[in-house]
Amino acid sequence: MTRFTVNNQPVEYKLDPQTPLLWALRDASNLTGTKYGCGTGDCGACTVDIDGAAVRSCQVTIAAVEGTFVTTIEGLAQENNHPVQQALIAENIVQCGYCIPGVVMAAAALLRKNRNPSDEDIAGAITNLCRCGIYPRLSEAISRAARVARGEEEIVLDRAQPAAAATEDSALGNE
């Protein structure tokens, strides 16, 4: 049995210790916000936070994360109001939404380490692939999230807008 903490809840998996973390999260814990994209660690759709670092969950076994703290998109913010989520919604970044949970997790890990990232810092930390091509606007959205996290800006979302609701679902990992 493998034990670690997922979204502040202790878990014990009775799975083969070589099971990729991605499949334990999705299949055994029903945390489907973490997406399967490529299975090779290249796309980043499966990015989660492990002890403060953005990690591709398809590339790490549950045995390797024993005793750690894992945060998925579902556990990032109690009210789904993390600055990165808010900024991506406010900037209307989300298109199909499939890559967004991984992007959010990578950006959140970056902002935890670097409260004022440059465009180069963002490009170096956010290596996730997006088939829709959100890249031109992504850097500004993450910079805006950094300003929000530093308390320099506030984002007020209009949750009554139907298009905003669909975008919000993707940014929160609810699709």
TrEMBL record:
Task: Give TM segment ranges.
Answer: none
Is RNA-binding there in the keyword field?
A: no
Keywords on this record? Answer: 2Fe-2S, Iron, Iron-sulfur, Metal-binding, Oxidoreductase
Q: Where is the 2Fe-2S ferredoxin-type domain?
A: 1-76
Q: Does the keyword ATP-binding apply?
A: no
Q: Which SUPFAM superfamilies match?
A: 2Fe-2S ferredoxin-like, CO dehydrogenase ISP C-domain like
Q: Which InterPro entries match?
A: 2Fe-2S-bd, 2Fe-2S-bd_dom_sf, 2Fe-2S_ferredoxin-like_sf, 2Fe-2S_ferredoxin-type, 2Fe2S_fd_BS, Beta-grasp_dom_sf, Diverse_Oxidoreductases
Q: Which PANTHER family match?
A: BLR6218 PROTEIN (PTHR44379:SF2), OXIDOREDUCTASE WITH IRON-SULFUR SUBUNIT (PTHR44379)
Instruction: Output this protein's name.
Output: (2Fe-2S)-binding protein
**From which source organism is this entry?**
Sphingomonas plantiphila
Starting at the broadest rank, the lineage of the source organism is: Bacteria, Pseudomonadati, Pseudomonadota, Alphaproteobacteria, Sphingomonadales
